[in-house]
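FIELD: query
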Amino acid sequence: MKARQLSITLRLALLFAAVSVITFAAVGAFLNGALAQRMQSHDDADLIGKARLVRHILNHTPSLAALEADPSSALFAVYGDEGFLLRLRTTNGKILLQTAEPPSPLPESSGVPLGQQITVDDVLDWHPPGGAGRVVSAMALVGESHLTPVQVTVARALPGGSILVKNYAKDLVVAVCIGAVLVAGLGLVIVRQGMRPLRSVIAKANAISTHRLNTRLSVEEAPAELQELGTAFNAMLDRLEEGVQRLSGFAADLAHDLRTPINTLMVETQVALAHPRGCDEYQALLASNTEEYERLARMIENTLFLARVDNAQMALRRETLSAQKELDRIRDYFEGLAEEGGVTLEVAAGDVSLSADPILLQRAVSNLVSNAIRYTPRGGAVRLLAYKTPLGLDIVVENSGPGIAPEHVGHIFERYYRADPARSASSHSAGLGLAIVRAIMHLHDGNVSAQSIEGRTTFRLRFSAAG
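FIELD: result
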């Protein structure tokens, strides 16, 4: 079973929590380190201060015997301070004074020489069991007349600063956990509030159906992050609405055009069956029906062709073709039809070539020539031209005749559109020929255009130079 994906709201809340943990931990670690360093500096300064004080006291003690008899003055330096240890030792190793037995041996040191100031660099680490410590040693003189050198050692196990730092670290971990939970909770609330515009977009999207494709998102009212999404969504709706309208019109036109031949077939068959007929009458009926069947077959074949083009299911088989040879072949094919209608066919192409699918090229030009012959009056002419242009190659089909009204020129390439409604029942056309021409040109990355001026109609197929 596929695991359920986390929502964006929960993901962002968890991300906020993770970022807060990382941020709090980094800041806490920095503060903890800074506090530890500051406390150690404070403890070291305290340790050095006591060592200096003991030095000063020893320097003002009358003699070594007086120190041994009354060590209270030296003990005063560490009196009342928890964890401090004081040891006075002669140069031959005799311990004159020691406040307590150290839990572990103190680090051996010759001590800071006489006359030299004690600094932080003279403080050493000490590692008693179960803790840490710091120790400093320095040489001092005892006696006013007979001066005796004594090594002063001041140590402190588990400094108070270390305890404070450890407690601070524990409090910091608790604070980070509580802060992460609070940030996750607040982040969840904030993200839910911030996602309200997106939920509004989703609600409007759910309300859209094939009957309400005119609904659009309010891009101006959306946050900046959603404006681009809203614009793209509205553009998609525009395309869908246009496609649905075209599909609806296509279905209506197709039903209308199919109804005419089917009604003709049905009425003629019903009339023929109403009374007994002779063999000749039945043959005439079958011949008439055959024409209608052919019209239906052409309509279905053309419709399927356009459907394959729209769904990009048709692959081009481009070849380098001679425009003159292709147009001559089309002229020869329509020569009989042109002579029957009293129309002259002329070809002028010269030595130009193009890259195109030969079958589709012949179909596109043939559709134009067929229309041109049909609408050219007797004694007129249809010209087929091909020539290079800076943009590529143009194939032009010109014919004389009544022309096309300006209000129809922009629509003649639409499916089932006829400039002359009176021809809607004609068995020669289903209103798909020019739509097929446009589809073929789109496949070739070209275009088709029409112009009708002063009794001359021109259709231009433009193939791009890149093709």
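FIELD: remark
The chain has eleven helices and twelve strands.
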